[in-house]
């Protein structure tokens, strides 16, 4: 049977600021520019998960979209609508860059989706239209 890839996109919103606690405000400002502010700023992110597998002979699907959506909702729930620096334990000490957020989402997917018949082949996280991160597990 031929392998098929499927991509599912979800949107979510959260806030962040870039700051290394051990650095002075001047150094944080120099390194992070406008991403270093006292309250931070928010984004409307887009998350694409690329899955690969064999279509089920009965359904024709590599994985039911209902299952994909359920997993994505579980993965995004801890960060959606949150200020990452202040409300998400993993980002209290880690700078919530797009790269680090993508790594966080990859780890969450891998933890929740271990027994799926389709495997994750790529994760793409859009911070905006001209900035995104790709990760391959």
Walkthrough of the structure:
- The protein is α+β, with helices and mostly antiparallel strands.
- Helices cover 28% and strands 30% of the residues.
- It is built from four helices and four strands, in the order βαβαααββ.
- The chain has helices at 25-32, 65-76, 84-87, 98-112, and strands at 4-16, 41-53, 119-128, 131-135.
- It has a four-stranded antiparallel beta sheet with strand order 1-2-3-4, covered by helices on one side.
- Helix 2 crosses helix 4 (98-112).
- 22% of the residues are buried.
Radius of gyration over all CA atoms, rounded: 17 Å
Number of strands: 4
Secondary structure class reads alpha+beta
Helix content: 25-40%
Rough outline: elongated
Task: Give the helix tally.
Answer: 4
Elements, N to C (H/E): EHEHHHEE
> Beta fraction of the residues?
25-35%
The largest pleated sheet is described as: 4 strands, antiparallel
Average pLDDT, rounded to a whole number, is: 95
Strand order of the largest sheet: 1-2-3-4
Beginning-to-end CA distance, first to last residue: 23 Å
Low-confidence stretches: none
Question: How would you concisely characterize the structure shown here?
Answer:
With 137 residues, the protein is an alpha+beta fold.
Keywords:
single chain; about 140 residues; alpha+beta; 4-stranded antiparallel beta sheet; 4 helices; about 30% helix; elongated
């Amino acid at each position: 049977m031929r392998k098929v890839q499927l991509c599912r996109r979800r949107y979510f919103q959260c806030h962040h600021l870039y700051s290394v606690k051990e650095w002075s405000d001047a150094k944080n400002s120099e390194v992070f520019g406008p991403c270093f502010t006292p309250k931070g700023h928010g984004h409307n992110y887009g998350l694409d998960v690329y899955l690969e597998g064999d279509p089920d002979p009965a359904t024709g699907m590599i994985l039911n979209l209902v299952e994909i959506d359920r997993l994505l909702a579980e993965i995004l729930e801890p960060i959606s609508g949150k200020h990452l620096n202040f409300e998400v334990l993993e980002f209290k000490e880690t700078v919530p860059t797009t790269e680090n957020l993508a790594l966080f989402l990859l780890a969450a997917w891998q933890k929740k989706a271990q027994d799926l018949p389709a495997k994750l082949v790529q994760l793409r996280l859009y911070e905006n239209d001209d900035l995104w991160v790709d990760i391959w597990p």
